Known about the structure:
Layout: H1 3-13, E1 23-24, E2 28-29, H2 31-49, H3 59-79, H4 82-108, H5 111-133, H6 169-187, H7 192-211, H8 215-238, H9 249-302, H10 312-315, H11 326-334, H12 336-359, H13 363-383, H14 392-405, H15 410-424
Antiparallel strand pairs: 1-2
Helix pairs in contact: 1-2, 1-4, 1-5, 2-4, 3-4, 3-12, 4-14, 5-6, 5-7, 6-7, 6-8, 6-13, 6-14, 7-9, 8-13, 9-11, 11-12, 12-13, 12-14, 13-14
Amino acid sequence: MSLHHIFALLCLVLLPFAEFHLLKVGFNLSPPNAAAALFAVLILYWGITHPKNWLMPSYGILSCLGAFIMLVVGGNLYHLPLKQALSASTPCIGAGLLFFVAFTVASHIHKSHWEAAILASTLLPPIIGLGHIFGIVPYFEPLSTLTSNKSFELFGVIHNGATGLMKSRGSYGISGIVGLAIGMRWILHHNPLKRLAGVFSSLVIVTGLIMSLSRSTWVATLIFYASLAVLFGLFRILTKNPKKRGIHPGIILCSILAVALLGTFLLWPVIQEANNRLIAMSPKTVQTRIKSYRLALDVISDHPLIGLGPKFEHNVLHVKHIVHNTFLRVAASYGSMAAVTLSAFIIWTYGNLVTGLIKTEDRKRRYYLIIWIAAMTGAMVEMNLFSGEFSKQFWALAGLASAEYHPNNSQAHERTALIEGSLSS
């Protein structure tokens, strides 16, 4: 495995540390950003020396993503002084870079390696979170910058939800959905050990998502599984041999949900107090979010072209709560065109996934495409309920999904099949 592949995998494993800043040099340098920067330097050199082996997304993806980054950077330069504008642009540039890291990883590295890296990345936060809750991993002050509003106490009482090392519960939800997608890929694998690892990983991630106490994350996870069940069901109905031997994916999904519900019942005494608080504050939370949505729509109406700049809620309007909707916040911050390009990127990704699902004749790849469609659907629910325009977890998901449907990636699938065949023989 080459050096740039190692840095790419390291970047994916370190995603939960995206909010942890190693140092500030005009911008915040986090561990995944540092790994991605080293990867970018190495991949540029490798791309120049191996141009024929370099797989890139379609021009539509590049155009939408490039336009979105340019509009965000341009908006920051317009609204802020140069130094602040460069610092504010770092998350967007980092998110775009991570898309290419994930795409390259899924296109060039054997799938067992990058799938294991993603699973390690998505299992780390729930393991740390559950460890805090049950007192196995003690809470200490250096981790306060890595947890969600001091979610944990030494006594194991949850206040705002367990999110492990991640601050944003929205990003935590998307991270969990990505992990569940990889877990489902392993559940459908022919290797019994991989199936067992996939089931175990899925149960840990689902338990962690439950303990996050994020209602939007719960809804997004249910939508992910519902999309899987519907698409797998349609595939079974439309396929020529629906009675083929093997475990029906619907049974697997129901089993995971049943165990997750049982786990919730067993853990209920631990989260009962926090649940009561959530119910008590629900009307206030809903009213606050509706108010923020109306605020964003007013801003878009008054400033449709350039918006009011990043963090406009705090910096310009001096309100406490941010807009918990990615597309409204992008439009209010950077103008309607930025929201249009972001939406076009997502629509293009969905369109290619569906097109690939219709055209491909490979049964396993159809399953993989269904999993990514369901993951993108769950992520869209989450993106509409928090401000995740620069969420590294979302852009990693987009990169992995783009690599799955990309036409040129059929060679990579053939190479993987040959490797698996030689290993099994």
